[in-house]
Write a structure and sequence with these properties.
mainly alpha; about 250 residues
Length: about 250
């Protein structure tokens, strides 16, 4: 079991990560993994992530009244996301944790670069039928290896020209599928830790508290300014994750 002071730190991380998710619809896995991977290691950080990520994503996926419509449109994307997450998790189990943590930092910086340099995936249009399984597969690889599906999953969902609330709900739906597949794959490979799963269950409360606060201020806060601050902070965290891992490895 983790020391009490470390559990308190983890709880504050999930309040922050839940708040970000409540405001912009993403960020819980991204923030929590980034702030915990350097302290606990990426693999343990992912195990703690599983339950709060699943619960908050399910809440987000089931809120909005567009679940059937979104599932009908995204099912091919979701299926390939699920399958490749399952397969890629096998690499997570056996790969060097430091290399995967550096990979997480690079994914964060790629995500931030897409925002600062206005890099967008073109609207799929008629190409959606073959782009969806491709993007789902690439997102599954990223999820299986780093625990986060922001690149290219979130970017692809943003390209589909969904309205704001549908986009938030679609990200919750995708996050739910990715987390279920990740959890099932880790369980099948026998690497789930009972102690860390207990902590993971406990983190539901701070994550939901943060998400509730973020949802309440979503319509009141200047989202453009908040997103800018979010990506500036995430860039700094990404650099910190890579630098800390490299220093600790040497």
């Amino acid at each position: 079991m983790l020391p009490v002071e470390l559990i308190i730190y983890v709880a504050f991380v999930y309040i922050l990560a839940g708040f970000v998710k409540g405001v912009v619809g993403v960020g819980l896995p991204t923030i929590s993994l980034a702030l915990l991977a350097v302290v606990l290691g990426l693999k343990d950080a992912i195990l703690i992530l599983l339950v709060p990520s699943l619960i908050t994503n399910l809440v987000q996926a089931l809120t909005g009244g567009r679940l059937y419509k979104l599932t009908k449109r995204l099912w091919i994307f979701l299926l390939s996301l699920c399958l490749l997450t399952w397969i890629s998790t096998g690499m997570l189990v056996i790969a060097d944790g430091n290399l995967l943590t550096i990979g997480l930092g690079l994914v964060l910086l790629m995500y931030c670069a897409s925002y600062f340099f206005k890099m967008k995936i073109p609207a799929p249009g008629k190409n959606e039928k073959w782009l969806s399984p491709l993007m789902g597969a690439l997102t599954g690889v990223s999820t299986g290896l780093t625990g986060t599906f922001v690149v290219p999953g979130t970017l692809y969902l943003q390209s589909m020209q969904l309205n704001r609330h549908s986009l938030v709900q679609s990200m919750g739906l995708s996050g739910s599928v990715a987390t279920i597949s990740l959890t099932a794959s880790l369980g099948e490979r026998g690497v789930l830790s009972q102690d860390l799963l207990i902590i993971s269950c406990a983190m539901i409360i701070p994550a939901l508290i943060g998400m509730g606060l973020g949802t309440k201020v979503r319509s009141k806060i200047n989202e453009v300014l908040f997103r800018r601050l979010f990506f500036v902070s995430l860039s700094a965290i990404g650099v910190w994750v890579i630098a800390s891992t490299v220093i600790n490895t040497n």
